[in-house]
Design goal:
heterotrimer, A alpha/beta (about 575), B mainly alpha (about 300), C mainly alpha (about 325), B: about 300 residues, about 0% strand, C: about 325 residues, MetI-like fold, 2 domains, about 70% helix
């Protein structure tokens, strides 16, 4: 069981991890300025140099258990950030689960602890609606002290930051954000991921190291009961996979000819799983890095081989006919078919993507579906598209604007949310418990905390992950597992460790999250949209047989079309951005 | 206006005699019409019944596809859940307010604009019409309109929901056409001869004759307000002012977000369960008020409103 | 016996002659002063128009600039016709125009007559309870949100379990994936739209029909006219002016097609016919790294100009041949 290796490439597992436990405790207390008291933290302007923090962290809570080698947020006493009550205006997305931000349980708790009052401005609607409104606000000069939970892209952060609208928080981290400093030490690649091309950091970084998320884009499930019933094993190669599906079909395990050997729907792309048996393919926007050079996957011969393979399955009726048109509701209907299950497998992010998850029932249908490893293709290619860089460190959770008169206070406020108890309350609500010694977490080590079974369904108690937190991998895996109440987190984690991690592609091959400047963004907008349309369209046509992947003419026409749209300028653009990211 | 003027032509007796007989061709035509209408209504009723049924069915059965026409596993949980969310309840009230207030304001503006433009011989009428129509084709766009609303100090107020889209030129044009068709020129002349001023004529003669078009305007504007979410999204940041559609939109559409965008499966699961639970009941409460309102509007589609005025 | 329209038009042309000669005799200023009350009525709506429609129009400049929200409209640099060129030379330009126009015209031709026919039918049937009930039912689908309608379409056309495929099966045709069939997209879009909006659109015509004096029907019955003839000669002419106006307005919007429904109905198989201007603008505008306001505005302006030209043409045509027009 590759427990140690089971960490993704970002954190350094080594001896340092053990030492971190010590430094975290001493960083606050002993380091400088003799400020062990709770004097107003904002007055630390004297030693404003990077090395000298102006604030101190409170003492650790002693009752909390940590596993050995734990890297992550620790529980401390939170001290008020300001002696008089300070108010900041923050724009946030409206969310039915958060309820009224003003009366929200976490809001109240945090305010009471930090003495910082927030005036909330809520924006309703979908992500796109929210972005439209935010842009309108900026255009009108109607700017709050900060934006929280608004999904600015890196390019937007850079563009608006450069123009002075957003504050560079880097200058405050050293002095005021000790928890963040620690987090950035634990995750050394974090700086590269959050800094803009001008080396400034325009939003307060957020760490959400979700292990299983790294493989989610290509995850695929198969029904283990069915595999048993047809007397086969979990397939290792593409040929075995087809054998299995044929067996499903022949045995008609769903009854009445309703069996669907493999099921997909329009929002679950097939290429993220199947193509990785032919070449490394992370999915839309299909960019990879080969020896420092940015390239696309959809013009390659290997892609064509993959098309032939998938087309073969479709033509034999092994994939549902409406794989490109069914919507989520239709997919749910297939997955939840009453009586017996009718689908043998599905391409989905997690179980909830194709059926209802009943976490209380030990015999629930979802437990029969296993996330299977990628298949080995005819040329021995076998990748699990692993997301090293897009998962873990996030930008834009909290953006402080130029309008904020005291950014150092907001920085401390955000930093306070990186403390363990604040994280638990902000993310799970007030009904959490500290784990006792001996209780185990998802990764089988000592657990740190536990939630009640219904934490996910109550309203108005959390901030629904709209704020910055430090959820390291160890933290996430230290959630107590209740043997009587088996949630899906553990199996998801375990199956990712067992079946996807071993096949991950090297980190250098992944195209990182880059930042574009305004001109690049304008160019990219059109190229990316047109390329995506053409590639999706052609992919579905090749798979369904409207275009024949075996026909050289059709394939070359496709390559000509994407060439005409502008693959080359697109790649040039991304190459430039990639080099900026690295340089 | 005679009482007989309220009945369709064929239900009256000519000279008190026997009821009018349809020709054979007519009978066939009528039969066809009834059948076609009946089928069409059934075709429409099916999805409506489905939505109602799904809203009172067990959500697991709904997502398993077991609900086809009648409810399966009857339960009112979906409606009870609505009351758990304060946001939904208050937004319903807001929507009602905006619909009523908005449609009144808009109808007044529309009538004021449409009547003068329907009068022949008003100098500059063509020019003014063109000015109206031009705004249907050209618009400054989102940002400038937002800036204007901001500069007027309307941001985050109820007026922001009512004023920026108060008058739809389309409605003005329809209303104007109605006036042209139903207010003949000699009636205007008669009014002038009687010494009636334009205001007086409008108030005392035109408006009472215009019940159908007033009803249509009120209905269309109210429906427009009821269905709209855009103004709320753009101009409001106070969740106590949000209308129902904003919440609906968030729950129904947002949960269709691409899962790879939402990193955390726990949040994904939460959104999905929320959507499943509330989807149909929200749609139903979104549908009911307009349906309830319509019969009141229907009452005003009274025929023969012109009869008495001409004779007089 | 003359019909209402003929009666009205003779009256109208007589009045028209009077006013025309009257116009020539009296000066413009005097005429304007005589009508001051009408202008007073127009004052409020015109004020509204000036504030909420004309004042923001300066924003079309955005189409000619490299607009940046922080720099603002005046601070952003000029871009000239750059975005127009970009749109016209874009890979999908002709496809977008074709898809949008085709869809719009198909929708127009298919769904324009239907509310009229529906209104005429509802108006003519004897049993009022049936008419009232039908009106209410046919008006209801307008309020079912698009998300549900498209969801229902998916269910009904599902290759495995959908009703349509069961019907096709009766004719011996194997299960088809209708939603993924490019050829079917337009049909599905238009006819589901017709189903949804027919009843609501008929309301205007019903309102127009209330202006028909019952005596005309009575007189026609006495003359022995059948129901259908009465519909044709009496009811229909009452609707024509409204219908013509609506038609003109719709022609002006030929490059617009309902955005949300198309977006929901799009899938990777029908993109070649289902990508219209609005969905394209959405994808470029919002789904990109930095919102492309300039580009979106340029495309919008392009559409408006073309729409205006067509509108003016349609109006001139209507004025000459249908005697009902916008101006």
């Amino acid at each position: 069981m590759p427990n140690d290796d089971a960490r993704k490439g970002l954190s350094r597992r080594s001896l340092i991890a053990g030492a971190i436990g010590l430094t975290a405790a001493t960083a606050g207390g002993g380091l400088l300025s003799g400020c062990s008291g709770s004097s107003s933290a904002s007055s630390g302007t004297g030693a404003a140099g990077q090395a000298a923090p102006s604030v101190t962290l409170g003492p650790k809570l002693t009752t909390v258990q940590y596993p050995e080698g734990y890297v992550g947020p620790v529980a401390r006493e939170l001290k008020p950030i300001s002696s008089e009550k300070v108010t900041f205006k923050i724009v946030v997305p409206q969310d039915v689960t958060i309820g009224d931000w003003r009366t929200n349980a976490f809001t109240k708790w945090l305010e009471q602890k930090t003495n910082i009052h927030i005036e909330w401005n809520q924006i309703g609607g979908t992500d796109d609606d929210i972005m439209t409104k935010v842009n309108a606000m900026i255009a009108a000069g109607d700017i709050p002290d900060a934006f929280m939970g608004i999904h600015f892209t890196r390019s937007q952060l850079f563009l608006y930051g450069q123009q002075g609208l957003f504050t560079d928080v880097d200058q405050y981290i050293g002095s005021y954000a000790l928890n963040l400093q620690q987090a950035m030490k634990d995750y050394p690649d974090a700086r590269k991921l959050v800094q803009a091309p001008d080396k400034k950091i325009y939003s307060f970084p957020n760490v959400n190291d979700c292990y299983h998320c790294r493989a989610s884009n290509g995850r695929t499930f198969l029904n283990t009961d069915w595999i048993e019933q047809v007397g086969l094993d979990v397939p290792e190669t593409t040929d075995e996979f087809v054998e299995l599906l044929r067996a499903f079909k022949k045995a008609d395990l769903g009854g009445n000819g309703r069996t669907i050997p493999f099921c997909g729907y329009k929002d679950a792309p097939l290429d993220t799983f199947f193509m990785n048996s032919f070449l490394y393919n992370p999915g839309d926007p299909w960019l990879v890095v080969n020896d420092g050079k940015v390239d696309v996957t959809f013009t390659k011969d290997e892609w064509r081989e993959g098309l032939k393979f998938i087309h073969g399955m479709y033509a034999e009726g092994l994939i549902n006919k409406d794989v490109f048109t069914a919507d989520q509701d239709q997919m749910d209907r297939y997955g939840n078919a009453p009586g017996k299950p009718i689908i043998g497998g599905a391409r989905s992010y997690y179980w909830g993507g194709f059926l209802d998850i009943d976490q209380k029932d030990p015999n629930a249908r979802w437990r029969k579906y296993l996330a299977v490893p990628p298949l080995k293709g005819p040329n021995g290619v076998r990748y699990a598209a692993w997301n090293y860089l897009g998962v873990g460190v996030e930008v834009a959770k909290l953006v402080i604007t130029k309008k904020c008169a005291k950014p150092e206070l907001l920085v401390q406020w955000a930093d306070a949310q990186m403390e363990l108890e604040a994280i638990l309350r902000g993310y799970g609500g007030p009904k959490f418990e500290w784990a006792k010694k001996g209780e185990l977490g998802i990764n089988g080590k000592q657990a740190v905390y536990g939630f009640s079974a219904t934490w996910n369904t109550e309203k108005n108690i959390t901030w629904s992950q709209d704020n910055t937190m430090y959820r390291s991998q160890d933290f996430r895996l230290a959630e107590r597992v209740n043997p009587k109440d088996l949630t899906f987190e553990k199996p998801l984690y375990q199956q990712t460790v067992d079946n996807y991690f071993p096949y991950k592609q090297p980190q250098e091959m992944q195209f990182p999250p880059v930042t574009l400047d305004q001109d690049q963004a304008a160019q990219e907008a059109e190229l990316k949209t047109n390329l995506k349309s053409e590639v999706s369209l052609s992919f579905s046509k090749f798979v369904t047989g409207q275009l024949d992947p075996n026909d050289d003419g059709a394939w070359n026409d496709f390559k000509d079309r994407v060439e005409k749209i502008g693959v080359k300028p697109y790649l040039d653009l991304q190459q430039a951005a990639y080099e900026t990211y690295n340089g | 206006m005679s009482a007989a003027g309220t009945l369709p032509p064929d239900e009256r007796r000519l000279g008190g005699g026997a009821p009018i007989q349809d020709t054979r061709g007519d009978k066939i035509a009528l039969a066809c019409i009834y059948t076609a209408l009946g089928l069409f209504c059934l075709a429409i009723l099916y999805p409506i019944v489905y939505v109602f049924s799904a809203s009172v069915s067990n959500t697991k059965k709904v997502s398993a596809g077991e609900v086809w026409l009648w409810p399966v596993g009857f339960t009112l949980d979906a409606y009870k859940a609505i009351f758990d969310y304060d946001a939904i309840v208050s937004s319903f009230g807001n929507s009602v307010f905006y619909a009523v207030a908005g449609s009144c304001v808009a109808t007044v503006l529309t009538l004021l604009a449409a009547y003068p433009l329907s009068r022949k011989g008003l100098p500059g009428k063509g020019l003014i019409m063109a000015a109206f129509v031009f705004t249907m084709m050209f618009s400054g766009g989102l940002i400038p309109t937002y800036l204007v609303v901001d500069q007027l100090g309307l941001l985050n107020t109820r007026w922001a929901m009512i004023l920026p889209t108060a008058m739809a030129v389309w409605n003005v044009i329809i209303t104007r056409t109605y006036f042209i068709v139903t207010i003949p020129e000699e009636l205007v002349e008669a009014g002038k001869v009687d010494g009636c001023s334009d205001f007086g004529f409008f108030w005392r003669i035109v408006l009472p004759l215009s019940k159908p078009i007033i009803a249509v305007n009120l209905l269309f504007y109210a429906v427009g307000q009821w269905n709209s979410f855009f103004n709320a999204l753009i101009y409001l940041t106070n969740e106590h002012l949000f209308p129902l559609q904003v919440i609906l939109r968030q729950i129904l559409i947002q949960s269709k977000v691409d899962p790879s965008q939402m990193q955390d499966t726990s949040k994904l699961l939460q959104m999905q369960e929320l959507q499943q639970q509330l989807k149909y009941s929200l749609i139903v409460i979104g549908m009911i008020p307009p349906l309830l309102v319509y019969p009141f509007v229907q009452k005003h589609f009274v025929k023969g409103a012109m009869v008495g005025s001409l004779k007089g | 016996m003359t019909t209402s329209t003929e009666a009205r038009s003779t009256v109208r042309s007589a009045a028209h002659k009077r006013t025309r000669t009257a116009k020539n005799a009296v000066g413009l200023g005097l005429r304007m002063r005589r009508n001051w009350q009408l202008y007073a009525m127009l004052a409020l709506p015109l004020l509204w128009l000036a504030i909420f429609a004309y004042w923001p129009m300066y924003g079309v400049i955005i189409a000619f600039k490299d607009y940046n929200v922080v720099s603002g409209i005046w601070g952003s640099p000029w871009a000239g016709m750059k975005y127009f060129h970009r749109f016209v030379e874009s890979y999908q330009f002709w496809r977008l125009i074709k898809n949008t126009v085709y869809l719009h015209v198909y929708e127009l031709v298919a769904t324009f007559p239907l509310p009229i026919i529906l209104a005429l039918c509802l108006n003519t049937i004897r049993k009022k309870w049936f008419s009232r009930a039908s009106q209410l039912i046919t008006y209801a689908p307008h309020f079912i949100s698009t998300v549900v309608v498209v969801g229902l379409l998916v269910v009904l056309t599902s290759p495995n379990t959908g009703v349509t495929n069961k019907l096709l099966g009766l004719f011996g045709i194997g299960p088809q994936n209708l939603m993924g069939d490019s050829g079917m997209f337009r049909h599905l879009y238009v006819w589901s739209g017709a189903w949804q909006t027919m009843g609501f659109a008929a309301i205007i015509y019903l309102a127009a029909l209330t202006s028909v004096p019952p005596e005309l029907h009575e007189a026609a019955i006495v003359d022995g006219a059948s129901r259908l003839r009465r519909m044709w000669h009496i009811d229909l002419p009452a609707i024509v002016p409204v219908a013509v106006i609506l038609l003109i307005l719709d022609i002006g919007r030929i490059l617009s097609v309902g955005f949300e429904k198309v977006l929901l109905m799009q899938n990777s198989l029908n993109l070649d016919v289902a990508e219209v201007i609005d969905t394209y603008v959405y994808k470029i505008g919002l789904a990109s790294s930095v919102p492309q306001f300039s580009y979106a505005t340029a495309i919008g302006l392009f559409r408006s100009v073309i729409g205006l030209v067509l509108l003016v043409l349609a109006n001139t045509f209507a004025r000459r041949f249908a005697r009902s027009s916008l101006w």
